[in-house]
Structure formats: C-alpha cells, structure tokens
Design brief:
Length: 702
C-alpha cells in the first residue's frame, strides 16, 4: 500500500461528524497533522488573498478552516486526557509545536485582522445580528491579544514565547500525572487498614491486582493505596493510622517537586514568560492581559470581591478549627492540642459523623450511578423540558465504560448528544472532572442546502468504578461533581445560537463559564431531585428521611474553611500573575507562604509544594483566572435564588423560571455579554447575599 493511500484513510482527517475513536491510533497522529497543516496553510493563504470584509467572505471561510483544525486536534487533546500513553504523548509532543505555530499565524494574520476591522466600520455592520457583532468584536480583540500589532523582533519573540509556554504546560501536566502514578503504599496487615471503609478496601485490592498481586482480596489484602483522589481522599478521612496518614499526606503535597519530575523550574519559567508576553502587548502584568477578555473589569475589582469573601470566611474557618480541636480533645486524642494537616480530614469526618450522625460511606449504597443519572435527567426535564435518553452504540467510544446519550426537545426532535466517561482510570486518565466540546452547534451549508449541526459534549468524571459486581456507588460529593459537569454540558448543548463562534460556551467570558455548572449543584439538595435518585441499589428503598435532614444540615459544615481554601488558591494565582517578578527576593513558593498567613488557618508545611501540582494555572487555562470559580459562584447562587424566590414547592413557578433560565443563560451562549444575559434572566445585577446565605456565612458578614 502506498503512503498516500494510508494517509487518505487516516481517521484523524475525516474532519467532520463523530470522532472514529475505535480507529484512531497514536502512529496516525504525525502523518495526519503533517497533511492537515499543509492543507490549512494553503487555505489560509487563499483566504488572505481573496478576503472580503463581509460575513460570508470572511467569517464563514475562517469558520470552515478552524473547524477542521479543532475537529482533529480536539480528538488528540481529548485522548491525552482519557487514554494517555507513552506513544500518544510522543506523537502529541511532535505535532503540538506545529499546531501552536499555525494557530499563532492565523491569530496574527494582518489581512484577516484588517478585514474584521473593515467589517466593523462598514455599512453592513448594523445589519448584523448581536451574536454576529460579538463574534467580530471578539475576533478583533483576540487578534490584538495574539500579537497582530507586533512587528519584526517583537513578533518573533512573542511567537517563541507562545510556543515554549505550550510545551511547558504539557510537560507540567505530564509531571503531575507521572508523580501521582509513581507513589503507592502497599498495606499487608490488618492493623494498617484499621478504620478504612469497605469501598476503599475493594478499590485498594483491585489496584493491587492491577499491579500484579493477582490474589489480592478486599478481606485479606494486600491493599494498594495511591495518590489518585478516589483512593487518597477516603484514606485521609478514615485511616486511624496517624503515621500512615502523615506519610501519604507528605507524598501528596510534594508531588512533582523533586527529581526528574520537578515542576519548580517550570513554574519559574512559565511566570517569567507570561510576564514578558504581557509586556510585549503593552500590559503591566499577565493578570491584566488575562482580564482583558474576561467579565471582571480589572484586578482591583477581583481583589475587592476576594477580600470581601476572605474576611467573612477567615473568621468562620478559625472557629471551624477551634471546634475541631475541642472535638478531638473530647475523644481523648493525644494530637488534639496540636492538630496537623494529616489530622484535619480524619477528625473533620469523625466530627461530621457525630454531629450529623452519618458517614459519607453510608450514603454510597443510595447513589448508584444509573439512578443518579435518572434523577439528573428527571430534573432537566422538569426545569428545561428536555428528554435525555440512552444512545449507546450510536457512536464509537474510547473505552468500554463510556456511554453515549441523546437530548431531545419537547417535540422529540434531537437537539444534542453527549458522551459520559464516569470512572477513575489512574493509569491513563488524568484526575478531576471536566466537560469538553466534541462538536459545536452551527449552521452548515452543503450544496446550497442549509442545516443545523447539533452539538456534542464530552463529560468526564473520575468516580469510584464498579467493583466486585456492584454498580458504581457514588459519594454525595461525586454526585455533586456529576451535576456540576452536566451544567457545563447543558450550556453547550441547549444553545439556540446558530453561529458557531458564539454558540454554547464559545465566546463566553471565562469568569462567567462556571455559572451553569455551579448552579446545578444546588439541585442535589432540593428535595424532589434528591429523593428522585436516592434509592438503595439492592433493596430499592428510598433514602431514609433522617439522612435528608442531615445532608441539609451538613451542607455548610466547615463551609468557611472550604471557601477560604478556594480564596487561598485564587489570591495566590492573582498575586503570582500581577505583582510577583521572577529574579526578585521571593520565589513563587515564598509568595504562596506569605499569602497563606491571611488565607489559611493552619499554615502550609515548609515542604508543601502545592504549586507544583496546581495544574489549573500551570497546565490548564486558569492562569490569573482561578478567581473565576468564586466570581461565577456569586452569579450561580443568585440564579438559584430566583428559583427559591419563585417557590421550590411551586411546580408551575419552577417550570416558568426554568424556561426563562433556559432561554437566557443556557440558550444565549456567547451571543451577548454575560452581565446582560444575567440581567435578562434576573432583572438586576448580581448580589453576593445569596452566596453567603447558601454557605451559612451571612451572619458573619459585616
């Protein structure tokens, strides 16, 4: 077979439709991108020569070009997160620089930029819809932030920085993945597993079997504990062995901080390059550059919100720790006077169990994944009038556990699809949970006929897999995570915008993106939703009433500490990207320890290298944007308050408010500014009051 025949059959070059996951192999990545980038390069040259400052002469051909790139690159990126392997990494690293180079070239195209500006100042401008105008405005802004205005050496330097930053960010994430994978604790005797719940023993025995101990059982071990969260989290909460908790905690906080996987030099370099990049574009610092395309007007406004929340949550967190010490003391714990970091989860869990008389583990049997999905789908039908049904088998998948679903409107017509990859697979899948775009909604024209391409989403979680013949039994926290990601998915899937550039989550300011996801979490505590899904997986009996009251009571348990933790991350991130300068008196770790004085109640240990695993800001898109979680939570809490005000027990009012939310927050996507979208839904600007009230912190606000 000749090389051309092989390339023309390369599944990564299909360029449209559902990704052919079963056919994609790492060795196809390099040839696919060599061919694709050469074709796109030629296409870009043609566009630049024939560019017209009109919608059909500029935006449409550009859309076609970027769609082809994002279709192929999206598959490779997605597989890096869910099916990582040495072969795929190698292929990814071989083509990433060329992809970045092409994206940079496109972003800096002078003819394209000039055409966008000409379109904005032309007579045709006023005949464009608001969504189209927002797309053009964003294209002009993005070109300016991509260095379109730079010449000569400055442009070359800018491009070299972009290239290096992309490589550093991939390297950073790989180091965290490898460091997480490299550590494990194998326990062999009963004393070492004292206090551990059955679900963790099953998971640990399964991990031991996977590592070659074929006779490992939950009853007799050996048990393999890892730094992967479904293993690490429950161990820290339940193990009575303080020495082992200390060992595991210290391994966790020092991930990717030494040896071949040390991320410290990468952090220094990333911060240095980001600062230089901002300077080239005329910004004081990287935080200002980051905010230029966000909803928050400036660094001061972000700091003001974070400080308002910090004051309230710091006082609450101090009380949380005092209460925890008193509780440990009442139980005769020797360490009560001097609680260490590895004691907090353990004692917090004991106090929560006693205070609310239930354990996170006890609830698992009531939340098997299939039922939780039924509850979630029932809720979206109630609120938004859409039907979710299984479409398994209609799309190729990357792993046998992946499911595929359809969403249909009131008339039964399909409006969107999504994949769900629910379980943790530490060997090949990165931790955390996320929603990503597989296919964007948009108008497509083929041979003069126009049709609407339906959106498809990826929803990825890392919950406990089914073990020993039982379904995946979820902790309540995992239930909230699933609802959260589904909220992102809904904004992508229920969009009514037909211009891809502003459909779904496209063109939504980054700090407003968490609104629909955090909004969905509130429903996990709403009575009909909770009882709609919480049934015992063996007996089918509903969750006993007393658990419901305890869940509600426990919702704000240590919420001051929880909020303070998020604020600690946000303030460190903002400081590193605004005031910090490399080569000064402080290292990034020093900055973090300084900020910890007012944002932690138990200061981090000297060896705590949390920044080395802070993938959100060094490996993902949250640089100078981690505050977005809190910024958007103000919006989401206020959005949920609209349902509370309408009356959660009033089905008609819920339906009406739900449709209004669907028609604004979920439907308008990036076609209007998020503040305008929010005001259209709520009738006013957002307020912090509902957020503090939902967190039980309203009383401490002053």
């Amino acid at each position: 077979m000749n090389a051309n025949a092989t390339i023309s059959q390369n599944p990564l070059l299909k360029g449209a439709g559902l990704p052919p996951f079963t056919e994609v192999k790492p060795e196809q990545v390099v040839p696919a991108f060599q061919q694709l980038l050469a074709e796109l390069d030629a296409e870009l040259a043609t566009i630049e020569t024939n560019v017209q400052p009109t919608w059909s002469g500029l935006v449409e051909p550009l859309d076609k070009l970027t769609e082809r790139l994002s279709w192929s690159w999206g598959i490779v990126n997605h597989l890096m997160g869910v099916k990582n392997s040495p072969e795929l990494r190698e292929a990814f690293e071989a083509v990433q620089p060329e992809v970045v180079q092409f994206i940079t070239k496109l972003g800096q195209s002078q003819p394209v930029y000039n055409a966008f500006k000409a379109l904005r100042s032309s007579d045709a401008w006023n005949s464009l819809e608001p969504a189209q105008q927002r797309i053009v405005e964003a294209a002009i802004r993005d070109a300016e932030l991509s260095g379109v205005g730079l010449q000569g050496e400055a442009r070359e330097r800018f491009n070299a920085i972009q290239m290096e930053l992309a490589e550093l960010s991939t390297k950073f994430s790989n180091h965290v993945l490898d460091a997480t994978k490299a550590f494990s604790l194998t326990l062999t005797n009963k004393e070492e597993i004292d206090g551990l719940p059955q679900s963790l023993l099953s998971l640990a025995a399964q991990a031991a079997r996977a590592a070659g101990e074929e006779n490992a059982t939950p009853e007799n071990g050996p048990w393999r504990i890892t730094l992967d969260f479904p293993s690490y989290g429950p161990f820290m909460q339940h193990s009575t062995r303080r020495d082992l908790r200390e060992k595991l905690y210290k391994a966790f906080i020092s991930r990717a901080a030494s040896g071949d996987l040390d991320n410290n030099p990468l952090i220094n370099r990333i911060l240095e390059l980001r600062q230089e990049l901002a300077g080239l574009l005329g910004f004081e610092n990287f935080a200002e550059l980051s905010l230029a395309s966000k909803m928050a007007p400036n660094v001061k406004a972000v700091e003001a919100l974070l400080e308002e929340l910090r004051r309230v949550s710091y006082d609450a967190a101090v009380k949380d720790l005092e209460a925890l010490k008193a509780f440990a003391l009442s139980k005769g714990a020797k360490e009560a006077e001097d609680l260490k970091h590895w004691d907090i989860s353990f004692w917090a869990e004991r106090q929560r169990e006693e205070k609310f008389a239930f354990t996170a583990e006890e609830l698992r049997p009531y939340f098997p994944l299939p039922q939780v999905l039924n509850g979630l789908f029932g809720l979206v039908k109630r609120l938004f009038g859409v039907n979710v049904t299984s479409a398994d088998g209609q799309a190729p998948v990357w792993h046998e556990d992946v499911r595929y679903f359809q969403i249909a409107d009131e008339t039964g017509a399909p409006i969107a699809y999504f994949y769900l990859d629910p379980y943790s697979r530490p060997a090949e899948k990165r931790g955390g949970a996320w929603m990503d775009v597989c296919i964007h909604r948009g108008k497509t024209s083929e041979n003069g006929a126009t049709s609407i391409r339906l959106p498809v989403a990826y929803l990825v979680c890392n919950q406990t897999p089914p073990i020993d013949g039982k379904p995946s039994l979820m902790t309540f926290n995992e239930v909230e995570t699933l609802f959260h990601e589904f909220g992102h998915g809904l904004q992508h899937m229920l969009t009514k915008v037909d211009y891809t550039g502003a459909a779904g989550i496209n063109n939504i300011e980054w700090d407003a993106v968490e609104l629909p996801s955090q909004f969905m979490e509130n429903w996990c505590y709403e009575r009909p939703t909770l009882f709609g899904m919480a049934k015992h997986y063996e007996t089918g009996e509903p969750l006993p009433e007393h658990y419901y009251h305890k869940l509600i009571a426990a919702r704000n348990y240590m919420s001051g500490s929880g909020m303070l933790r998020q604020l600690h991350f946000s303030i460190v991130d903002l400081e590193l990207h605004s005031r910090y300068r490399s080569g000064g008196d402080e290292t990034p770790a020093d900055v973090r320890h300084r900020i910890a004085k007012t944002t932690t109640v138990l200061p981090p240990l000297p060896e705590d290298a949390f920044l080395c695993a802070f993938g959100h800001i060094f490996g993902g898109g949250y640089a100078a944007g981690y505050y977005s979680y809190k910024w958007a939570e103000v919006l989401s809490a206020d959005a949920f308050a609209a349902f509370e005000e309408a009356g959660l027990e009033n089905e008609e009012a819920i339906k009406t408010t739900g449709r209004r939310y669907r028609d604004t927050v979920l439907a308008l996507g990036g076609s209007r500014h998020p503040m305008e979208v929010f005001k259209t839904f709520r009738g006013r600007e957002p307020s912090t009051t509902p957020l503090l009230r939902h967190n039980g912190l309203a009383a401490t606000a002053r």
